[in-house]
Design goal:
globular, disordered N terminus, 316 residues, alpha+beta, four-stranded antiparallel sheet, 7 helices, 2 domains, single chain
């Protein structure tokens, strides 16, 4: 007798298949996603590969967020979605990284990977994405405005988001930032300007932090809320060659303004759209050439951003 789509056993088998090789970054991703995962991720028969990948990444990241911290990291690493394993294109290499990170032997790390896949399948089996009213983890971004000031002693960013609740009772959301890893950890000062209180700071990796934003009050389904944060980083953590926003939930509009030191402008500046985060870290991603104005500023606008892809600016 065949198992029903969405059953834990079937989803576990499909996750084990999807995690092989480069995981969800496989160039033929559409052939790696089975019927159970397609249903759980809301993937439609006519979806092109880019949409299949974006939907799978978005849903699996949200499902991993429901797991305990160590299992969440393990699941994301196995699938190739953890920022620190983007360049590890074989599962065995990611398991090796996990063993080192967890300070366990490789055999134990493999067992943890299998356990994480079972737990992830259990989360996915509770409901499929088809017909769900939620977009992302109970909220989505209607508009995001960011200003990156790179003309001073320390890089500063000011970010303003207008979010929309996709369920009743939304009272907190997760925020995350990534910067080049340093031996002493990520020294990033995050200050709330308005719209909530920051709590629960967690250093997820050497290059990424996660914070919880507690909202002033629970939001109702469809209710909008605006908040803004300011970040300062050490001078030696100056953005090396790009500023990009990689949404992990739906985002309708993104406006970016970057201010360079007009006396030391980059030789070249260009637009980045729908780029993998690892590509931005590892190499230059060619895009539409941009020119800074006489104040050293560049402005960009993006619509309908896809979760899991980077949007912004790069320079050399």
């Amino acid at each position: 007798m065949s198992r029903p789509i969405g059953a834990v056993e079937q989803l576990t088998d499909e996750l084990k298949s999807a995690r092989r090789g480069p995981g969800l970054h496989h160039p033929q991703i559409e052939s790696r996603i089975g019927p159970g995962l397609r249903a759980a991720c809301g993937i439609e028969p006519g979806d092109p590969p880019s949409v299949v990948r974006a939907k799978a990444i978005d849903r699996l990241r949200r499902a991993a967020d429901a797991l305990p911290t160590e299992l969440s990291m393990t699941a994301l690493a196995a699938l190739g979605l953890h920022p620190d394993v983007y360049d590890l294109l074989q599962l065995q290499d990611r398991v090796g990284w996990l063993a080192t990170t967890l300070r366990r032997d490789v055999r134990t790390a493999r067992r943890r990977v299998d356990e994480a896949c079972v737990r992830l399948a259990d989360v996915l089996s509770t409901a499929t994405a088809a017909g769900r009213r939620e977009r992302g983890p109970g909220w989505h971004v209607q508009s995001f405005e960011a200003v990156a000031l790179l003309d001073g002693e320390r890089p500063i960013t000011v970010e303003r988001r207008l979010i929309v609740a996709d369920r009743d009772g939304l009272d907190r959301i997760a925020l995350g930032w990534s910067l080049p890893a340093q031996g002493g950890g990520l020294d990033l000062d995050v200050r709330m300007l308005y719209g909530g209180v920051l709590a629960g700071r967690q250093q997820q990796t050497a290059s990424r932090i996660r914070l919880v934003l507690e909202l002033p009050r629970p939001l109702r389904l469809g209710e909008r809320h605006e908040y803004s944060v300011l970040t300062h980083a050490r001078a030696d953590l100056l953005l090396k060659n790009h500023y990009a926003y990689t949404p992990f939930t739906a985002c309708d509009f993104f406006d970016l303004r970057v201010r360079f030191d007009r006396k030391r402008l980059p030789d070249r500046i260009w637009r980045v759209s729908e780029a993998f985060h690892r590509e931005l870290d590892e190499r230059l991603v060619e895009g539409e050439p941009l020119t800074a104005d006489r104040c050293g500023e560049v402005q960009l606008h993006f619509d309908d951003l896809m979760p899991g892809y980077g949007y912004g600016i790069q320079w050399s």
